[in-house]
Specification:
single chain, about 725 residues, alpha+beta, five-stranded antiparallel sheet, about 20% helix
């Protein structure tokens, strides 16, 4: 939940304030930002940008706001504009690179990490990415290992963090989880986290949310929470509140602290602050070891490596001792947060400082001689190009939960994951001759199933490689098919396939075979001309031989990326419009004004952009005039993208376009409560230009639109 939790623990550097009216707007925006009223802050920042459009201090504010609320497409767009305006802040380059990475534009991201590295050569956030420029390919290698599902309890508000209370009860941190329905499309920026008790069913779904008492849930954010069965105590991350008022530190931030509460007589006791808290910095995201003697948490206290670092505090009697930093193997100049210690002692945590797929990724680290080793990325599908965090993992069952904002609505959800029993795997190997100049390319390799006696054949490629598909529990032998010039043992390989396949690909090694006599050429053995021989008429042909095509290792899957404007579309035979999204407030409403009669058409956005184009602003100006003429009316807005790019990318982009329309109308004096927005990504094209359909640039353009209806409030 980086978008909420970083809000209250990291101050924002915006640069020097402008003069006059612009300075006033920025001051109002900064105050709204500090109060976590992000839509209001965006309004004031955009007013300032309208009056002073070429100021990187203003565009940086807008970029940082979008980054804070997790809309990476808009954040990246505004950081690029900030850089183009001549920004001298290296962090703008870093955040632009991070944004590109979150949009799966890895090659372009590495380019900008390299530029940042020239300005900050010792920053590990850049070093870890440019050290291996194809690192992200490896993170997709085991993407079929786990299956994940989004839980039904999620709604349009943030739902984060999970801790097990009993065998069938958990605690989660969420906003209004017991009040909103899953169909609520409204995006809220102003509510606060509370802690809820939920039950878990046989499908691992969470149900029946019930808010904990006022002893636990305060005025501001409460959560995430961790339950320690060792002493029946919960440890809660809360805003620093004293006398019912937020405490502001010297940097202007509201920090977080860790509090504890014990379960006594059927209820939770009043929370107590831990001794190592401090008003000057934040402590957050506590996790306690199974023996109750070590607490891991995140903090931005002095002496760290930058951002939020992971620390450990150990029990001294009944008191938590002075925390110690986990060191440079784990911590970076970025943020390390949401630690979780599994039952076998593996430390899991989220980081945006180590090389990952975008935003926060989940990593794990093992302890060796009192030191935690360099962490490994869990890879896809648990990690993606969004924020992924708050892992709860059952070692024995190889399943658990984690949180992510990958769903495309700008908020965080809980996902369940479990190890997937694979139904097949690729068995690979190499066969070559003792004479390295003679290749076995094209020679037949045979795999025999010892249980069914079924035989399969493939041909060796130029590198002498073969691959067979095998299934759980099969016992197989692999041999080179008889050749008059080759001496080879039978079988060359034998393998018992596990009943539970863990890895989808296995190389079982290499084998060298001998030639009966020297070959008078270099290259494939099949080129050697043999004396013509008459067939043996008594020979019985082999039966049950099923030729299978060469199977290529497709494990390293390329991540989705956006499609460039000039790329060609794949060809299919028909154009078929998608069905409209159900339960739309816009579609169910009737406009009281015929906008077409007023020459008000749809707004058309530029490709992959959320800015209101200059030639489209007149449309919104006319709408603002109509709304001012009748204060009893309101505007319904829905925004779309064309079909190019991934669905998640387009979902975020259309949401950003809706916010741009809202912000522009607010600048024209229309109250926020008179503007209702919906966004549909690449759904509902007007002309059938969906994925896989060839369309011209002009045909795609009409789908990048905003539609409007004026209705009674």
């Amino acid at each position: 939940m980086k978008s909420i939790l970083l809000t209250s623990i990291i101050s924002l550097f915006f640069g020097i304030l402008a003069n006059g009216q612009v300075a006033t707007e920025l001051e109002k925006g900064d105050k709204a930002f500090d109060d976590m009223l992000y839509d209001e802050a965006l309004y004031f920042y955009e007013v300032a940008n309208e009056q002073q459009p070429n100021d990187p201090d203003i565009t940086r504010r807008i970029a940082a706001l979008y980054r804070r609320i997790g809309i990476q497409i808009s954040s990246t767009e505004w950081y690029k504009k900030t850089i183009d305006l001549g920004s001298t802040e290296p962090e703008d380059i870093l955040y632009y690179a991070e944004g590109l990475k979150s949009l799966s534009q890895y090659d372009e991201a590495i380019k900008w990490y390299s530029i940042y590295n020239q300005k900050k050569p010792n920053d590990t956030r850049a070093i870890s990415h440019i050290r291996d420029k194809e690192y992200f390919l490896e993170l997709f290698a085991d993407s079929s290992k786990y299956e994940i599902k989004k839980l039904k309890i999620n709604n349009s508000e943030p739902v984060i963090g999970l801790t097990q209370l009993t065998r069938d009860k958990y605690l989660i941190s969420a906003i209004n989880i017991d009040q909103l329905t899953n169909d609520d499309d409204k995006l809220s920026f102003s509510s606060y986290l509370d802690i809820f008790e939920v039950t878990v069913d046989d499908e691992f779904e969470l149900n029946n949310p019930k808010a904990l008492s006022a002893n636990i849930n305060g005025k501001y954010h409460d959560g995430p929470v961790f339950y320690s069965p060792w002493d029946q105590t919960i440890y809660i991350t809360r805003n620093n509140i004293k006398k019912n008022k937020a405490v502001i530190d010297k940097k202007g931030s509201v920090n977080t602290k860790i509090y504890s509460s014990k379960f006594n007589n059927g209820d939770w006791s009043a929370v107590e602050e831990l001794s190592f808290n401090n008003d000057a910095f934040s402590n957050a995201h506590a996790c306690v070891s199974s023996d109750g003697q070590a607490m891991f948490f995140s903090s931005n206290r002095d002496g760290g490596f930058g951002g939020m670092d992971l620390y450990v505090s150990r029990k001294v009697g009944d008191v938590w001792g002075e925390p110690s930093n986990l060191g440079p193997n784990v911590n970076t100049e970025g943020n390390e947060m949401f630690p979780f210690l599994s039952s076998i002692g593996t430390l899991y945590f989220a980081s945006d400082g180590h090389a990952g797929l975008g935003g926060l990724d989940i990593f794990f680290s093992e302890e060796y001689n009192g030191t935690y080793l360099s962490p490994l990325n869990m890879g896809a599908p648990i990690n993606g190009n969004s924020d992924d965090f708050s892992l709860l993992y059952d070692d024995a069952a190889d399943r658990g939960y984690f949180c992510s904002n990958r769903a495309g609505r700008g908020n965080d959800d809980i996902f369940f994951f479990q190890f997937k029993t694979l139904q097949q795997m690729l068995l690979a190997g190499n066969i070559f001759t003792e004479n390295k100049s003679v290749s076995l390319e094209g020679e037949n390799v045979q795999m025999k199933n010892l249980d069914s006696n079924e035989i399969s054949e493939v041909k060796l490629n130029a590198e002498g490689e073969f691959q067979f598909i095998v299934k759980p529990g099969e016992n197989v032998e692999i041999s080179l098919v008889d050749h008059p010039l080759v001496v080879s043992e039978k079988p060359l390989f034998a393998y018992n396939v596990p009943k539970v396949i863990v890895d989808p690909y296995l190389n079982i090694g290499t084998k060298e075979v001998k030639l009966i006599k020297p070959i008078e050429h270099n290259g494939p053995l099949s080129l050697y001309k043999q004396p013509e021989q008459k067939p043996d008429i008594a020979e019985v042909p082999k039966k049950d031989v099923k030729a299978k095509p060469d199977v290529k290792n497709d494990i390293k899957k390329q991540p989705e990326t956006t499609v460039k404007e000039n790329e060609k579309e794949p060809v299919t035979d028909e154009k078929k419009p998608l069905e409209k999204k159900p339960e739309s407030a816009y579609d169910n409403a009737t406009s009281i004004i015929d906008l077409n009669a007023s020459s008000i058409q749809n707004i058309i956005f530029d490709f992959s952009k959320s800015f209101i184009p200059e030639d489209q602003k007149n449309t919104l100006d006319q709408i603002a005039i109509l709304l001012k003429e009748d204060p009893t009316t309101m505007i319904l807005v829905k925004t779309f993208c064309d079909a190019r790019g991934s669905k998640t990318f387009n979902e975020n982009l259309s949401m950003s376009r809706a916010m741009s329309v809202q912000g522009y109308l607010m600048k024209k004096g229309i109250a926020k409560n008179r503007i209702k927005t919906e966004w549909f990504g690449e759904e509902q094209p007007v002309n059938g230009c969906i994925d896989g359909v060839p369309c011209t640039k002009e045909e795609h353009e009409v789908n990048r639109r905003a539609e409007f209806k004026i209705v009674r409030q």
